[in-house]
Amino acid sequence: MPQSRSRHALNLTFSSAAALMLLTGCGGGMDGIDRRIDTLVLDQSAVLGADAAPADRRFRTGPVDDVDRKAQLEKTPETRNPDAKDLFYVQAEAARLEATSVEERLNAYYADYESALGSPTEEGYGLQGEEDQEPPPPPPIPDDAIVLDLSTVLAQSQRTGREFLDAQEDYILSAIALLRERHLWGPRFFNDTTLQVAGQGDDGAYDSAATLINELRLTQRLPSGGDVAARWIVNATEQLRSSATEDYRQSSQLVLEGDIPLLRGAGSVAREDLIQAERDLVYAARDFEDFRRSFAVEIASQYFSLLQTAASIRNQQLQLRNLRNNLERQQARRDAGEIAEFELTITRSSVLGANNRLQSAFENYVVSLDNFKIRLGLDPTLPVAIAPLTLQLSDPVATPVEAAQLALLYRLDLQTTRDRVLDARRAVANSRNNLLPDLDAFAEVGLPTDPDEREGGLAFDPDSMRYLAGMRFSLPLDRETERLGLRASQIALERSVRNFERARDQVVVDARSRLRSIEVARFQYILAEQQVEINERRLLEQEIREDEITPQEFVDTNAELLDARNARDAALTDLRVAILRYLRDTGQLRIGRNGEIMPLPGMDITTEP
To answer: E strands of 112-222, at which residues?
Structure first.
């Protein structure tokens, strides 16, 4: 091929590719995609009225495939499972198994968690004005420890909580799915370049030709179904045998074509994927906001539970101190001959039991605290301190009917279940459309360069224009699969309706139940406080009349006082959780951008000193 002709063909090819790159705006990269995702989720969350959207998430953009590439391609990954003979077990000596030694090690284990207990709340743990009734204060909080109060916990959970990040990504993936579907409905550019060599033999001699074809095309879906396309085709051919005459030919052609359905596949059914993707993003926004509320309630509940466990440790420490003081008094009475030895053993046994329960409470607290740090996405070895709760929510006043009406009106998950019924109805309509016959209109117009010219270049010849138009009709002789699909969609609709009815009824039951649970928790808290007061007075009276009280009576009183204090703390936790769950299950809970619980108009917020 002469150099000028080759260069001319290549210029046409590369010019079409360059036009494609300019039209598609190359160079946007992943940053542009992230910006479009951010815009989409922010807009959708704003429409929903949510205060937060995952618009600040950034993901890896570097080549992650090269990391541990060899391990990725390994067909049999290494498994470490040595035989028993290759393992080594260190057996404890008898001295380490004695009670004193074990207790010392336990105290050493839990020493780092003493400061995490925080300080007693305003409810107190002992008799007011009685210094010896107060448990020992916790050690000072380390300088590198994170103090976790309710607001800090909620904010941390929305920054590093793994469940929260998963929910964010589900929302983002729905936005990506919509952007992908929207892109399919926009103008799409393609460029194909084909180089081929063909030959044909004649008595052992071959006529060979090299052909370079470049096709630049633009496609566009139509809202009512079908699509149109525009193509620019450049064809350059070179005869490879030197004896060939007119060995080089080049031509180009502009083609406009369209195919539009008139019956089956026409109308809104053509946009089904786009419609569903748009609606799915709305559902994802609701799901994400609903998750934020539920997750905040769960995190707050765990925080309240930690406070309750810490309070139970304080209660147990106080009981143990009382029992040890009583043991000293009873030993003195035994030495004076006022009580028998077996009565002293009752007190000794109670001290041992209280110490055992204290160690168990510490272990429960340590495990709960470490699991809580994991759920917040923190390092389990990170030192933290649980601060006492300073924010109190007032009890709501509502009737069961009002609570149910609020839930039916505001619950986001119920709204999604309701809208999925509409999706199912639309699916039935689309299935009916599939039963129609196919009737399509098609047309094509081509504008080539002059076919008589060996090098057409870009000089298109209107006199050589060609066109094609027609209709294509297909009788629905076999629609069995489509009829089965229609029946399946009708069944799915019935199921969707039942799911909505069940969800609606459950929402009513949940709202009414949450309202009652607040009253039950408040009532239990009032009774528990009265029980604590009664048993504290009973214990004080027994301490005044200790010469008349048997060791068993004193042990029983301490046990009942401990149970009353723990019941009070549990009832307080239940009350706090019940209020949050009521707000959540009636659709009234609002979570701020940093995870904070937003007070509603008319809701009293009290702050403890």
So the answer is: 146-148, 188-202, 205-221
